[in-house]
Amino acid sequence: MSVSVRIPTPLRKLTGGADEVAIEGANIGEVIENLEAAHPGLKERLCDEAGEIRRFVNVYVNDEDVRFMDGRGTALKDGDEVSIVPAIAGGC
What CATH number corresponds to the domain at position 30? Predict the structure, then answer.
């Protein structure tokens, strides 16, 4: 199944400037692996050494945070929209 992945501005240099890419995958983990295959360098920016989504990277499926779903195992349906949103640090 194909999902649409919205790419944040800082990562667009890895997708040739594209702000959205279509990627196959049954869950978030597969989408990340397929993103890496299509656009090398993305996975290391999204995942830590253990393969988990970095804590400063938020991933949403249709506006729902995968951290409150099944993380990398979050199931996807054809046509879902996945958004990658780098966390914005704040404070003084």
Answer: 3.10.20.30
